[in-house]
Give the backbone structure.
Amino acid sequence: MKKSFNQQRIVSGLLCLLVILGAIAGCGGRSGGGITASNLGNQAPVVSLSASKAVILSDGADSSTITATATDANGDAITYAWTTSGGTLTRVSDTQYTLTAAAAGSYDVAVRATDANGATTVQTTTINSFGANATQGGVTGSFSVPRATFRAGEPTTSGNTLDAPLSIMEQGRDTSRAVAAKPAPTLCSRTEFAAGELIVGLQPGVTAASVAAAAGMTVKSGGRSSMALLSLDVSGLSRAEALAKTRTTCLNLNGKPGVAYADLNGINKTMATTPNDPRYADQWHYPLMNLPQAWDITTGSASVIVAVLDTGGVAGHTDLSGRLVQGYDFVSDATAGCDGDGIDNNPEDVADMRCTTGGITSQDPRHGGYHGLHVAGTIGAATNNGTGVSGVDWSAKIMPIRVLGAGGGTDYDIAQGMLYAAGLTNDSGTVPAQAAKIINMSLGGDPGESCSAAMNTTFQQVHNAGVAIFVAGGNEYSKTAINPTALCNHAIAVAAVDRGTKVAPYSNQGPGLTISAPGGSQDNVDSDGVLSTMRDNTVANTYTYKYYQGTSMATPHAAGVGALMLAANPNLTPAQMAEIMAQTATDLGTAGTDNVYGAGLLNAYKAVLEAKKLNTTVTEPATPVIALSTNKIYLNENTSTADIIITNTGGGTLTLTSVTDSETSGGNWMSTSTSSSSGKITLTITVTRAVLTSGAYTGTVRIVSNGGTATVDVTMQVNAPTPTAPTGCVDNTIYVLAVKTSDYDTAGQAEAAITATEYKMFEVPNGSYYIVAGTDCNGDDFICDQSTDLCGAYPLFNDPEPITVTAQQFSAQINFAITTVGGSAARVSGDSPEAVLPKSAFKIRRK
């Protein structure tokens, strides 16, 4: 008879009861018997390992004692077998061994405990040896190498159609969104600052000389404006002592008669209408923010000047011909300036840090950098001239102001550059013939600090002069704070998004962000960076183009749109500009203004349109016009969904009538769904890989609406493609180097296969280093010096940051992307090995 579930449960319960009663009866008054561990079957031993030291020296003498402790539930005897991945194990007893090492490395010591019945347990512990010297440490992290094929071809097979209509009304300004507030500054709190220098704000009628004399200091610069740079004698002191004395003096000087404020001189670092420019097709970052539709309203005005405070300009670049106006060099330290003098009226980029001690000279053909040139090209490269790339603004003038030299730039020099740009009194004793209306500052300091008093005061002065100030949010991967310069009064702080409108991995997050703009992310493919103007010194000073990534690249997108807004409305104030950008942004992430995207993704069309509406009556399109954030999607092997933002850049209501996805090969692996909110439609593409073999698959999504039809190319990767060596590369090993920030010599090295993703570096002395990596394609024992080389730096190739190595421990999570130096299909041929580092070729150590 077949039993029901309840009947089976009752019978099983009776059997269990009989077994238990039998066991109890068996226990009655007798020793032995009953339920024991042996009745439960043989149990494997339980083992733990303890080490007397987690780190040993690789001198062959220093040792760590590893002890095994094991128990066996069955009471069986236990035997032990010891192994190690390296070093030398010496027996002390069956349960204890010592490990010594003759070479640096990570050594896994394992013990296998086996009981009399053959049950085993293995336990492992790792002992690190950073070198024979107790002052040595290590670096560990991961890297990504670009793959060969990324973008979709033309699909031929049909797929699924999503028929549910979805509509959005024409979206105006969302007045509920406000520009993010800035926190109050903290005096004398900067971490990186110039020893022996203080910026002092002067009260009305007070001279710099009188304050300096009262404080026992001297005037180094200033006196013309309301601030001065005072010098403190720190000669004969160690660097730590000099910094401590400077900070103490700063604190003591605040509150003294005649002093409005005293602060440290902080050190900042480098951070529709279709033009006929041939490389415009590679500038995916413009359609992402609806820039072509903004060009239908205005392509800019030559009466608008944008000041670029950066590494300087490059007057000879063909794609900036006729776009530059007179600027200035405010790098006051002659050594840092690399041009043999202090401030002067020549803002030409002399390759910033290349002339410092130990670096290659500015005449060396391998030098490069040109961070400011790349930024300037995004704002205003000559456009629709049949050459190179397009700029955001087709007509605005660029004022190059050099404030970054060797090692970055100080708050004081940057403040003087800002005053000059705004036509205010400054240390040069001169002002431009026409002041700038916008300042772009793709630079800044370490997140977690506040804006200095000097910078806050300068920002207020410049804002009061009618100048809008755009500042990069920073690239330090911070989840809690942004670049302190972006926290200054009235700073329009810019975060970066990638090609898929997601926050870029490096983009700092925290209070104070205003807006997001395209900054790129080159983790998967080099051309997912931002393409702009560049100089290649390896081939007779060739002027060329290059993909970079960073908030430094996002910021000029926003500044360029600001210039278009001024062309549409010359009476626009900086406050109105920031407010309109925030209120017309495409909302991303958490609804409203947040700490990741600010108010959202900059919508150039809506921002320019609303600016024009404040100045004149605007006749808007009567019918809807569909606009997509991108027409190309790439889903790497770890990504299964991607979003496309659809907006209405016309009038009325935009309604989607159908969305059809089609696959070229591999069957039906793609599907779509849509949702609407905050004046946008989000189209989500989802892929399924379950039955597909390794490789790249392509398809399209066709979107039909009452505002037109649009197509998106989709590429989906199944399993990670194997990175391949550049053509003609004789050594495709990835060399990861720790190079000194003092003289750029190689102090540490790790080697990995081109197919690897992780590295470990040992024997690195205490100190500050840049982490760079690349191939030595011509076998000359230098990486990054050939156009065929792969090259990368932490955290970004175009915006490297030093790390600190501490003795006897790892500096961990030093992760970065490696890009092609030049010559790939996605890049212009002949691009230079130009990472913004003091050198662009680094010595490797051959074994």
Observations:
- The domain at 270-566 is CATH 3.40.50.200 (Rossmann fold).
